[in-house]
């Protein structure tokens, strides 16, 4: 049987972490073929030196893929594509992917956001797309070097309700042999919205105060603002018939307490480092838009959205 071809697009915090794990096990067992897609200096550095992951989970810190491409157009017959980019790059990635995928390619986005699967489906209408969410604390330490801190990253994903006949056994097997901490579900919508509630509230507040997950848990003002954002999201989720439990907000603060207290969020890092792009629209923009659609007032999110626009501009 032909070896499966696994492609990881984006070697940042998330793609670098999960891509490293998948590739490292492949390095020793060679059960499948891996291609990394990276651009610019990341492409050059990883091509030359391999991908480095600094993590307490791995003693060997370097891994070399079977192939590395600078553009998606160079990928041939992928069986599984992990999309690990920021949301502002998603449209472009999907556009390019539409030229190279086969009818059997499975797409697994590993990103934040509640509408990622729908957005990919508009560009790749015939593909199997696995809805997911992820908890991990990892970032680009320097070009080609990813640093991961705290507990092992956790991926939660589900089958595609529109492609229930797609065989996912081999995908689950790849994740298992790669020692990736994952949960596979029939439906992951509740998990995706719970994660959204977590990252949108902690992301927006840490970005506004340039603080940390620990500070949002302990500072009275930051915690109150985070809770208000969570309540706004919870009202929207209710109207969308996404069933969050009565203790979700409490549980999310318990979850936050399991992160190293000084953990920064990805939104905070992007906004406070003055990057040209950030995921403010994915978080605050989405809450405000859903609020308009479902007639839910979102004053706290709107205020922080405006505060952050001032910081950015
Ligand atoms: N980091 C974290 O701890 C967590 C992040 N997330 C979410 O995961 C997603 C990914 O985030 P993260 O990994 O942190 O983002 P990063 O910015 O660290 O990495 C994204 C990478 O994708 C690359 N990229 C973008 N477009 C392309 C392309 N067309 N071809 C090749 N490479 C491309 C970027 O390249 P370049 O460097 O050239 O811009 C960048 O290196 C986001 O939605 C984020 O919110 C979720 C949980 C935790
Ligand atoms: C909050 C965190 C670190 C949890 O995984 C995250 O998703 C992000 O910063 O994007």
UniProtKB/TrEMBL annotation:
Example of a GO biological process term: pantothenate biosynthetic process
Domain Ketopantoate reductase C-terminal: 187-306
Catalytic activity as recorded in UniProt: (R)-pantoate + NADP(+) = 2-dehydropantoate + NADPH + H(+)
One GO cellular component term: cytoplasm
EC number in record: 1.1.1.169
Keywords in alphabetical order: NADP, Oxidoreductase, Pantothenate biosynthesis
Top-rank lineage group of the source organism: Bacteria
Example of a GO MF term: 2-dehydropantoate 2-reductase activity
UniProt-listed InterPro entries: 6-PGluconate_DH-like_C_sf, 6PGD_dom2, ApbA, KPA_reductase, KPR-Related, KPR_N, NAD(P)-bd_dom_sf
The protein's enzyme class: oxidoreductase
UniProt domain Ketopantoate reductase N-terminal: residue ranges: 6-159
Short name of any one Pfam family annotated for the protein: ApbA_C
Coiled-coil residue windows: none
Role, per record: Catalyzes the NADPH-dependent reduction of ketopantoate into pantoic acid.
Family, as annotated: Belongs to the ketopantoate reductase family.
Classification via PANTHER family: 2-DEHYDROPANTOATE 2-REDUCTASE, PROBABLE 2-DEHYDROPANTOATE 2-REDUCTASE
This protein's name: 2-dehydropantoate 2-reductase
